[in-house]
Amino acid sequence: MSVNIVEVDDLCRQFGNTLALDHVNYSAREGLVYGLVGVNGAGKTTLIKHLLGLLRARSGSVRIFGLDPVHHPVEVLGHIGYLSEERDLPEWMSIEQLMRYTQAYYPKWDNDYADELLKTFNLDTSIQVKNLSKGMRAQVGLVAAVAHRPRLLILDEPSTGLDALVRADILDAIVRTVSDDGRTVVFSSHLLEEVERMSDHITMINAGSVVLDGELDRVKQRFQRSSVRFSDHQDPEPEIEGSLSLEGSGRSWDVIHETTVEQFSAAVAATGGELVQSRDATLLEIFIARVGRNTQIVEAPL
């Protein structure tokens, strides 16, 4: 039976007058991919910094593998792989030198696995970091993060600024990390299409608070997108019990709701409308319904 290797309890964090984390509870079990979504400034990176011990919990608690990462950095960080959005790598090193340098910190470094990933990404290990493209930096950073077979892999916006092929390579490597070894991944991204494709569990953060948390399949089953038609024009928009958001005009409307199709159909009928069709809502549609529209949350471009 899998156990929680991440435990965050009632965590609060304030910067000046800004409440970055507001009584956040969060956990992650072994062998699953955890998607963490929210607009820029929602609190995702602040939460990740607490998981890494880069910020001390001033209110609430953080435990990784049962330990406080601030008080036990060696025991905790030795089992964590981390890829940041900035991809801070030493510019003067070659890829080969960077691999040797990183290996020195991890007794369980797997040279064969590192070589396999470098070949998969078609990376020339003689190239210096300063001459790498943004995509190549992300690939090198991922190799350094996973080659020691960490129990927990934390990825903060790993796909930012990358083209579709590089993103696919990185995501495939993450999938193998989990499926081959039963590792845990915490995967923060604003690309909801990727999070939906990758994750077993989803946590949605807005203004420092967790607004939605659960297994992705169950979350999607809770929310429906239904098309509704009326015999008369609806102006203003119709008020249908159970609706979270509406789009449309006149006689035709698309509605996101958290009620069953049967319950929603009865609510539509009570307003003089007809339910045309329903399907499970996408993660993007759920996000917009729960948090609101924001251009910083997007579907992955082709």
Characterize the structure shown.
With 302 residues, the chain is an alpha/beta fold. It is built from 10 helices and 13 strands. The protein has a 6-stranded mixed β-sheet with strand order 5-6-7-3-8-9, with helices on both faces. The two termini are 39 Å apart. Residues 295-302 have low confidence and may be disordered.
Biggest sheet features: 6 strands, mixed
For the termini, the CA-CA separation is 39 Å
What Rg do the Cα atoms give?
22 Å
Q: What string gives the helices and strands in order?
A: EEEHEHEHHHEHEHEEHEEEHEH
- Counting helices, strands and paired strands, the structural category is alpha/beta
Summarize the SSE layout with pairings:
Elements (H helix, E strand, L loop, with lengths): L3 E12 L2 E12 L3 E5 L6 H8 L7 E6 L8 H5 L2 E4 L11 H9 L7 H10 L13 H13 L5 E5 L7 H18 L2 E5 L3 H7 L2 E6 L2 E7 H7 L1 E7 L12 E7 L2 E6 L3 H10 L2 E8 L2 H8 L12
Parallel strand pairs: 3-7, 3-8, 5-6, 6-7
Antiparallel strand pairs: 1-2, 1-4, 8-9, 10-12, 10-13, 11-12
Helix pairs in contact: 5-6
